[in-house]
Design brief:
Blueprint: H1 3-22, H2 25-28, H3 32-38, H4 42-48, E1 66-69, H5 83-88, E2 94-97, H6 114-132, E3 137-142, H7 144-147, H8 149-155, E4 162-168, H9 190-197, H10 199-202, H11 209-215, E5 225-230, E6 250-254, H12 255-258, H13 266-271, H14 274-284
Parallel strand pairs: 1-2, 1-3, 3-4, 4-5, 5-6
Length: 299
């Protein structure tokens, strides 16, 4: 990697930190149950301006709620400090789920067995549909959050409740972690330790039993639209082309085909990249899609 590209990585982290301290918590993550029972005046207004507001009713322009699915080590707030407001200001009802928690591990989620995480997603989507009155939801996930919903769609009845799945840097066929995963067999007990301590990580290693089951018989299920947004600078899900899906109603997008100078890697594409966000919006509303370019960072 060129030194000037490496130097931009800390800048991305700095921008994320700035967002975290400047976006009011009440505006980005409203606890709908408490708000509905006790909110008055300013509190109600703050809750309705954010996401996870269960009073939100989808509009005719955006008739489906959007469920955001965080990645490994993420959670329902930190992963979406930029994308959730981006979608809410465009008129979407937006909700974010926490899944894959391990006992005694706060804040860092997505570490539990992925099939169990998919069951948590299933229950959450049911909750969102019941609250909003919508027949279907759209799912947007980052990393594991773009892959795990496919288990829900394929094995847990999710295809009947989901219109579209948008994966941002999803590890649809696992990852080699730039080849490091291939070294596990050379360390006796390492694979067993990984599976026991953090099964959600073990499930994501290329060739795992979970991924073999997930991808057997095809990547997609009928009735769901799939979009994958990848970056060639991804250092976590490798090789990056393995993120792509095959099947009907699939659109695979490389970020650098939209904006050649976009240097986002695995984290930044999901947390900060408004060019990727513009393509997410296109995937959610393809009838009104507009061209995604480098200028989309200002949209």
């Amino acid at each position: 990697m060129l030194p000037w590209k490496r130097a931009l990585r800390p800048l991305a982290a700095l921008l994320l930190a700035a967002a975290a301290v400047t976006v009011p918590a009440s505006a980005v993550h409203a606890d709908s149950a408490a708000a509905g029972a006790t909110a008055t005046g300013a509190t109600a207004t703050a809750a309705s301006s954010g996401w996870n507001d269960y009073r939100c009713k989808p509009s005719a322009a955006h008739p489906r709620p959007v469920v955001l699915v965080h990645g490994t080590f993420g959670n329902s707030i930190d992963n979406w400090l930029a994308l959730a407001p981006y979608l809410t200001v465009r008129g979407y009802c937006v909700f974010s789920v926490d899944y894959g928690q391990l006992p005694g591990v706060p804040l860092f989620n997505g570490l539990g067995p992925i099939d169990k995480s998919a069951a948590q997603l299933s229950a959450f989507v049911d909750k969102v549909l019941a609250a909003t009155g919508a027949a279907e939801a759209d799912l947007v996930g980052h990393s594991q959050g773009g892959m795990m919903p496919r288990y829900y769609l394929k094995f847990l009845g999710g295809a009947a409740k989901v219109n579209a799945l948008v994966g941002i840097a999803p590890d649809n066929h696992g990852t080699t972690l730039s080849g490091l995963a291939h070294l596990l067999p050379y360390f006796p007990g390492a694979e067993d330790l990984l599976s026991a301590a953090t099964p959600g990580l073990a499930d994501q290693v290329a060739g795992s039993a979970f991924l073999t089951k997930l991808n057997a018989g095809g990547d997609t299920v009928p009735g769901v639209r799939y979009t994958v947004i990848a970056t060639k600078y991804d250092e976590v899900v490798t090789p990056w082309r393995t993120q792509y899906l095959s099947g009907s109603d699939v659109r695979n997008v490389l970020l650098q085909d939209l904006c050649p100078v976009d240097l986002s890697e695995h984290v930044a594409i999901g947390l900060l990249d408004r060019i990727a966000f513009h393509e997410v919006a296109n995937a959610l509303d393809p009838a009104h899609a507009t061209a995604t370019t480098c200028a989309s960072v200002f949209s």
